[in-house]
């Protein structure tokens, strides 16, 4: 206990209570290996209010640092190992001193390990910051994924999957940090890491259509199935047609050719999307759509279909005519020739599927 009546006592020295010291907050430097790059201001304010009422309940962990001064002397500072949120909140609360436990100086690896363990145990560390910290342990300190997992009390798969998300493009990582997508959304995006165009399309849909993780995973699996279907041979004409449909409709379109016929699958994510698609094809205005939890165009049937007319009509501009009975000839920029026979076989859309 410090006694103010002792003239020779250095009042700037840390105050001690049992094995806990009280150190001025201005003498504590942040941990250079702190994995957390961003701190939630609202949560910090809540913690500061708690500290005002109850004090700092858990001591910070620091190491002592002797710093040489320009005059040739030595001054003592402390480097934070664990407890940066408590330190920041204590400053917000107006505390001059905080309780600390002083440890012997650690190696750089141990400093990083301790900071990671503290933050991972809180479960609110940004997934990107966590992945970068794991990668630092792996790259700079040569710790295997299983060794990192053992130190933080997680599985090896947890560590490996965290590091794996760093393979996403920077704008997707930025979206993850900013909370525009979740860590769950990174899984289906990573499934398309070797399909840049499809990955971009899925990322755009996640942002613009507010896709759930389950919906994003479903789309990613469909792309994987499409990849398996086209593994042996990719028909460039079919791919071109799919791209034209995608640009025209604003959603993913899959064409599966079977003999002289085939099937066209169009993705949609709500009844509003379905009605917009119907409007593009000028099929039905204000059609009643049978709702279905699968939200599949294949399972959604149009009710009140208009009577089939024998009148031959021009096909919609810039949209390939859909037919399940026969496959259209190669698309060209030239207008399609009018033919009563050809239009008679293509005047009805039998089904759509996802």
TrEMBL record:
<dbReference type="InterPro" id="IPR050336">
    <property type="entry name" value="Chromosome_partition/occlusion"/>
</dbReference>
<protein>
    <recommendedName>
        <fullName>ParB-like N-terminal domain-containing protein</fullName>
    </recommendedName>
</protein>
<dbReference type="InterPro" id="IPR057240">
    <property type="entry name" value="ParB_dimer_C"/>
</dbReference>
<dbReference type="GO" id="GO:0045881">
    <property type="term" value="P:positive regulation of sporulation resulting in formation of a cellular spore"/>
</dbReference>
<dbReference type="GO" id="GO:0005694">
    <property type="term" value="C:chromosome"/>
</dbReference>
<dbReference type="InterPro" id="IPR003115">
    <property type="entry name" value="ParB_N"/>
</dbReference>
<dbReference type="Pfam" id="PF17762">
    <property type="entry name" value="HTH_ParB"/>
</dbReference>
<dbReference type="Pfam" id="PF02195">
    <property type="entry name" value="ParB_N"/>
</dbReference>
<feature type="region of interest" description="Disordered">
    <location>
        <begin position="307"/>
        <end position="354"/>
    </location>
</feature>
<feature type="compositionally biased region" description="Basic and acidic residues">
    <location>
        <begin position="340"/>
        <end position="354"/>
    </location>
</feature>
<dbReference type="Pfam" id="PF23552">
    <property type="entry name" value="ParB_C"/>
</dbReference>
<dbReference type="InterPro" id="IPR004437">
    <property type="entry name" value="ParB/RepB/Spo0J"/>
</dbReference>
<keyword id="KW-0238">DNA-binding</keyword>
<keyword id="KW-0159">Chromosome partition</keyword>
<comment type="similarity">
    <text>Belongs to the ParB family.</text>
</comment>
<dbReference type="InterPro" id="IPR041468">
    <property type="entry name" value="HTH_ParB/Spo0J"/>
</dbReference>
<dbReference type="GO" id="GO:0007059">
    <property type="term" value="P:chromosome segregation"/>
</dbReference>
<dbReference type="InterPro" id="IPR036086">
    <property type="entry name" value="ParB/Sulfiredoxin_sf"/>
</dbReference>
<dbReference type="GO" id="GO:0003677">
    <property type="term" value="F:DNA binding"/>
</dbReference>
<feature type="domain" description="ParB-like N-terminal">
    <location>
        <begin position="21"/>
        <end position="120"/>
    </location>
</feature>
């Amino acid at each position: 206990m410090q006694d103010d009546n002792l003239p020779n006592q250095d009042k700037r020295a840390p105050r001690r209570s049992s094995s806990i010291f009280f150190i001025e907050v201005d003498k504590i430097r942040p941990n250079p290996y702190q994995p957390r790059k961003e701190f939630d201001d609202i949560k910090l304010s809540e913690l500061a209010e708690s500290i005002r009422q109850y004090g700092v309940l858990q001591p910070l962990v620091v190491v002592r640092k002797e710093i040489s001064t320009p005059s040739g002397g030595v001054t003592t500072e402390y480097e934070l190992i664990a407890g940066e949120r408590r330190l920041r909140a204590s400053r917000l609360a107006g505390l001059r001193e905080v309780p600390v436990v002083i440890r012997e100086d650690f190696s750089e690896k141990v400093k990083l390990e301790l900071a990671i363990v503290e933050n991972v145990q809180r479960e609110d560390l940004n997934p990107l910051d966590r992945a970068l910290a794991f990668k630092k342990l792996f790259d700079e300190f040569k710790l295997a994924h299983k060794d990192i997992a053992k130190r933080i009390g997680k599985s090896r798969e947890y560590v490996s999957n965290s590091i794996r998300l760093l393979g996403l493009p920077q704008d997707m990582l930025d979206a993850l940090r900013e909370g525009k997508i979740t860590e769950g959304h990174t899984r289906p995006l990573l499934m398309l890491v070797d399909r840049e165009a499809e990955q971009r399309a899925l990322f755009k849909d996640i942002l613009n259509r507010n896709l759930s993780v389950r919906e994003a995973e479903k789309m990613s699996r469909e792309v994987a199935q499409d990849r398996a279907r086209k593994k042996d041979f990719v028909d460039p004409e079919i791919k071109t047609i799919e791209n034209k449909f995608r640009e025209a409709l604003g959603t993913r379109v899959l064409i599966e050719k079977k003999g002289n016929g085939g099937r066209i699958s169009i993705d949609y994510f709500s009844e509003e999307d379905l009605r917009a698609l119907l409007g593009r094809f000028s099929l039905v205005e204000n059609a009643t759509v049978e709702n279905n939890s699968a939200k599949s165009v294949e399972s959604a049937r149009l009710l009140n279909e208009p009577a089939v007319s024998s009148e031959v009509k021009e096909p919609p501009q810039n949209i390939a005519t859909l037919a399940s009975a026969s496959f259209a000839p190669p698309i060209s920029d030239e207008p399609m020739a009018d033919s009563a026979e050809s239009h008679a076989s293509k005047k009805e859309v039998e089904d759509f599927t996802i």
